[in-house]
Design a protein that fits this description.
Largest sheet: 10 strands, mixed
Shape: globular
Distance between the termini: 44 Å
Structural class: alpha+beta
Radius of gyration: 27 Å
Helix content: 25-40%
Strand order of the largest sheet: 5-6-7-14-15-16-17-25-26-28
Strand content: 15-25%
């Protein structure tokens, strides 16, 4: 294991980031020698050992646990970065949660309740006296204390005043994530390249998110003012909390600057001088929090979009089959309300965004007329290289797709089916893997606040996912549609449009960025301007013609200009005086305007509620397609000045209390509740949880260990192998396989299926998969068989259009979404349900909600079998190097590495890869034993 550098020894130079190999070893050693010699005990002078006792308001009975890799400490000084780059040493608490997290992959099979904290942290309130590592009165304040524990370094913040509590939260957040917070406030403002360097990945990141939320400083402030003005005393309290939190952050900035233990990335990116200390770390301001919030909302909580892609694929289907049959074919692939889809809520109907019988107002583009609106202009230097333009294309694709990487899962079982009679929950968000992590852990205890859990860095004035005194909560991304596309008619020129009959100018919003090489990022100097044209119906995303008329397609999001509104819901979740049971929990999350599924457990009850500002659409408007920007098709009650509208009431959102069990892995919420992403069909990764939890509930006596094992087992299973491959093999098995190569491949696949279809190491740390050949064969076979089965019937144009709506595959080795490759989360989007339904139909089996046509072998079992065998032979002949071609962290042919989780560096500290798991990044295992 890498050596640890105690936080109190080299704390002058902490930090995180993506700077692989930025200095050669010789120069690193020379720099370290110079930097370590004058080292002063900065952090040691600020801390003193103290004793604390466990809080008396903890009703979990030592049965609450959590984990958040790689570690709590996400800051590193310059010296620590250099040591990490040269020798692999880690700052204290930088990765001490990574090992236990990784070890569950091989250790879960023998898991018992008493072994849970071998793989998780004790998430009880407080710190036992003999486990106190340090006690700090930040900035010398007498009204707040930050205690850190020995095992993980998590801050336990206790305030005697509300201001002091929030000040401590801000100070502790800056101690652990200052550089990351700075990075993401610049991402949210579209200024990352000017701040951190012009690497193509930085260009793509700022473009993707600024396109989603192109705000001016006045826009950011207006959102704060609105959130305060519309929420009474809670709004005022939220503003006071935010200001205290920012005061804490800025106090740490000042202390670390004067003490010279600020994150070392500031030196490596040219913001500070390591010798003279010249330069400045800018203080945080309240509008930075809104910019940060816009990034998190875009990543995880903004369902919808993709209407133009939907229109293009519908038109392609109608061109292929004619309007009536083409529409039927398109709808069968869309699966808006598939009867075979696994829902989170078992009973009841919650109609939303359903297909109208007679759609009105649709504004489908003329063939070949759609052009994406360019975001980047006036490129110079390295901004004009192929790598930079490629990053821009990928950012645009990710921003415009409805297939956003929702991630996160939840398993919750009511007390009726547990061994103890108390509910058990295993849940958490999949937020990708970063170094440092986007989330941080903390405990907050103060007037009106009592919680422990995870929060996004820079927004941790409240715990966002975690536990209170006698309850716990978590969320998964839901993806229902709160983003609509409008076709605005142009008038006068390309930058004026008709708004309710008046020719109205678009508003130009620009962000100009320039960069030059630094030690951290050697990208050559360059610059560009990002430009967005805003209308009252949202920013322009495409241009086209409709019926010969020139239009701009805009995207209107219900949370646009409302990034700060959700703060009230999180404030309520942290307030033990507000959340006292499932009903008050549901009321709290109703104040969160982002699209999430929320789960709750206490000692007696479980609950679920879907959040988000779901706009009430005009009658007969189809939310899946662009509509004309005319009053008849606008959201009901829509006020463009404030971007507010009538929203569906809480009772219309899927919700439930004390259902026998809940599972969620971004699957369908409930009957008739349509999500924007495609793929909610008969096979979804939610099935992996549903099948296991349903079996546990049927057996009864569910424990924390058994539910954790179900999660871990699902997280190592290849969805295709468990739910689709047996049917493919059934087709092949309808006649003897005479070809020796195909027969050998079939035997390997059958053996893998019989062994459980897992992607797991032969032994812990072997970095070799059991059933490696079978895994390689399926990884190669899946895209081949999908194309061979469907493209002949659909035609090349329609097949390509459909894959733009729903990718064919999402295996662990695939690069996908804003988290990139090596991100753990897998099998969310793919053609598994299409293949499943089509093959079952070819076999003559019953299919509810079938595809409109049969595709594999054009419906002939023999022809389908021939297609599968021919593609299987081709796949079996592909080498590991062909299937896993290698990337910046893996050699070609290294199957384990291709799947592995690699923490994407956002600063200077790097971590080793771990074996693939498809599970939450932050995760809780909870079972409360009593209630207030």
């Amino acid at each position: 294991m890498p050596r640890r550098i105690p936080r109190t020894v080299v704390d002058r130079m902490r930090t995180p980031g993506g700077i692989p190999g930025f200095l050669k070893t010789a120069s690193v050693c020379a720099l370290i020698a110079g930097l370590l010699s004058p080292l002063a005990p900065a952090a040691a002078s600020e801390t003193e050992t103290a004793r604390t006792s466990a809080a008396t308001n903890d009703y979990c009975g030592d049965q609450c646990s959590d984990i958040l890799p790689p570690g709590q400490n996400g800051n590193a000084t310059l010296a620590q970065i250099l040591l990490n780059q040269a020798f692999g040493t880690q700052p204290e608490h930088a990765e001490d949660q990574l090992g236990p997290y990784a070890n569950l992959a091989k250790g879960y099979t023998g898991l018992t309740n008493d072994k849970i904290n071998t793989f998780f942290n004790d998430a009880s309130f407080g710190v036992p006296a003999d486990q106190v590592a340090s006690t700090l009165k930040p900035a010398g304040r007498s009204d707040v204390t930050i205690v850190r524990d020995k095992k993980t370094g998590v801050p336990h913040i206790t305030g005697t005043t509300r201001y002091g509590t929030e000040f401590g939260a801000g100070y502790a957040a800056a101690q652990d994530r200052l550089w990351l917070m700075d990075v993401f406030r610049h991402v949210g403002r579209g200024q990352l390249t000017s701040f951190a360097g012009g690497a193509p990945s930085n260009q793509g990141l700022e473009q993707q998110f600024w396109r989603h939320a192109p705000y001016t400083e006045a826009d950011l402030q207006a959102q704060i003012d609105n959130a305060v003005a519309t929420n009474g005393e809670r709004g005022k309290q939220a503003l006071a909390d935010a200001k205290a939190y920012l005061d804490g952050i800025n106090a740490y900035i000042d202390a670390s600057d004067s003490g010279r233990y600020f994150p070392g990335e500031y030196v490596l990116t040219g913001h500070k001088d390591s010798v003279t200390n010249a330069g400045k770390i800018e203080h945080f301001k309240i509008t930075d929090m809104v910019a940060l919030g816009s990034v998190i909302g875009a990543l995880f909580g903004s369902g919808g979009g993709g209407e133009v892609n939907n229109a293009l694929s519908l038109l392609a289907a109608q061109e292929k089959y004619g309007v009536a049959e083409g529409t039927e074919v398109w709808e069968s692939f869309r699966m808006r309300n598939d009867p075979e889809a696994v829902p989170t809520v078992h009973d009841g109907s919650f109609p939303y965004a359903t297909r109208p019988d007679d759609p009105q107002g649709a504004a489908l583009p003329d063939a070949g007329s759609v052009k994406p609106e360019p975001l980047v202009h006036d490129r110079t230097g390295s901004a004009a290289t192929p790598g930079a333009t490629g990053a821009s294309r990928e950012a645009a694709r990710a921003a415009s797709s409805s297939a956003r990487r929702g991630m996160s899962n939840a398993l919750v079982v009511s007390g009726e089916h547990t061994a103890s009679g108390h509910p058990v929950a295993v849940f958490g968000p999949q937020t990708g893997y970063f170094a440092p992590q986007l989330l941080l852990l903390q405990e907050l205890q103060g007037p009106g606040i009592s919680a422990r859990g995870a929060s996004f860095a820079g927004l941790s004035m409240y715990v966002e996912l975690g536990r209170g005194q006698d309850y716990a909560w978590s969320a998964t991304t839901s993806g229902q549609d709160i983003i609509d596309t409008y076709a605005v008619e142009l008038c006068q020129d390309d930058y004026h449009y008709l708004y309710r009959g008046t020719c109205t100018p678009m508003v130009k919003v620009e962000q100009k960025n320039a960069w030059k090489p630094t030690t951290a990022d050697g990208t050559a100097a360059g610059s560009y301007t990002m430009r967005v044209w805003r209308t009252k119906y949202g920013p322009v995303e495409y241009r086209a013609t409709v019926g010969g008329k020139k239009v701009a397609y805009t995207t209107l999001r219900s949370s646009f200009m409302h990034e700060a509104d959700s703060i009230i819901g999180f404030q309520m979740l942290n307030d033990p005086g507000y959340v006292k049971g499932p009903e008050s929990f549901q009321k709290a999350v109703q104040h969160i305007n982002y699209t999430f599924n929320w789960f709750y457990a206490d000692s007696e009850h479980t609950a679920y509620h879907n959040s988000g500002d779901n706009p009430v659409r005009a009658n007969d408007v189809d939310a899946d397609f662009p509509v004309w920007a005319r009053p008849a098709y606008e959201w009901r009650g829509w006020d463009p000045a404030t971007n507010t509208a009538d929203y569906t009431p809480p009772s219309a959102h899927p919700h439930s209390i004390d259902q026998d069990y809940y599972v969620s892995w971004n699957n369908k919420q409930a009957a008739d509740y349509t999500a924007a992403p495609w793929g909610n069909g008969s096979v979804h990764r939610g099935n992996l949880l549903e099948d296991r939890v349903r079996k546990l509930v049927q057996q009864g006596g569910v424990t924390r260990a058994s539910l954790t094992k179900a999660m871990a087992d699902a997280g190592l299973t290849d969805l295709r192998a468990e739910d689709v491959l047996p049917k493919l093999l059934k087709v092949i098995g309808t006649s003897p396989v005479t070809d020796s190569a195909a027969a050998a491949a079939v035997n390997k696949l059958q053996a893998w299926v019989a062994a459980g279809g897992k992607r797991t190491e032969t032994s812990a740390g072997s970095k070799k998969y059991a059933d490696a050949d079978a895994i390689r064969i399926l990884d190669a076979w899946w895209p081949l068989l999908v194309k061979a089965a469907f493209q002949p019937g659909l035609g090349s144009e329609l097949f390509e259009a459909m894959t733009a709506n729903l990718p064919v595959d999402e295996s662990p080795s695939a690069a996908h979404g804003p988290t990139g490759s090596h991100a753990g989360s897998s099998f969310q989007y793919g053609w598994w349900a299409y293949v499943d339904k089509d093959v079952r139909a070819v076999l003559g089996e019953r299919v509810q909600g079938p595809l409109a046509r049969r595709y594999c072998g054009e419906g002939s079992l023999a022809a389908c079998r021939d297609t599968l065998i021919s593609t299987l032979k081709e796949a079996a002949g592909r080498t590991a190097a062909q299937v896993y071609p290698g990337d910046e962290v893996c050699a070609a042919g290294d199957q384990w590495c291709a799947d592995s989780i690699n923490h994407r560096t956002l600063g200077g500290i790097k971590h080793g890869k771990i074996s693939w798991q498809n599970r939450p990044t932050y995760q809780q295992v909870v079972e409360f034993t009593s209630h207030r």
